[in-house]
Specification:
The protein is 55% helix and 17% strand. It is α+β, with helices and mostly antiparallel strands. It has two domains: 1-62; 73-117, no CATH class.
Length: 118
């Protein structure tokens, strides 16, 4: 009787070894791709951060001294939602909107900013 190398057991073992080597090879190839992608992404993020910082520097040059920070009078409804905001001198606003302000009830004041319930 002759012994044959190509038995079913040997062929299955060889195919299993090939599959294992293929899995290892593909995993190492994916790991290399992931590191290059991560390096490129970090470089792109650094470039974006530099451009954002440059934009911030340009925004600081705008003169905002003429813009009023808080309104003088604010009208709110019963739900606390802002209905109207008035900027400027309080005396001028009271002259222009005398009828409206008489219908409103004073709620509170913070510095020069007053709140009325409409």
């Amino acid at each position: 009787m002759k012994s044959i190398i190509l038995t079913q057991k040997n062929v299955c073992a060889f195919l299993g070894l090939l599959m294992a080597l293929t899995i290892l090879w593909s995993a190492s190839a994916e790991a290399k791709v992931d590191t290059t992608i991560n390096e490129e992404i970090s470089m792109v993020n650094e470039m974006r951060l530099d451009s954002v910082q440059e934009r911030e520097i340009q925004m600081e040059e705008i003169d905002l001294s003429e813009i009023k920070e808080v309104p003088t009078i604010t009208l709110i409804n019963k739900y606390g939602e802002i209905v109207a905001e008035f900027y400027g001198e309080k005396a001028e606003i009271e002259k222009k909107f005398e009828v409206t302000l008489k219908k409103c009830q004073f709620v509170t004041a913070s510095g020069k900013h007053e709140f009325y319930l409409i």
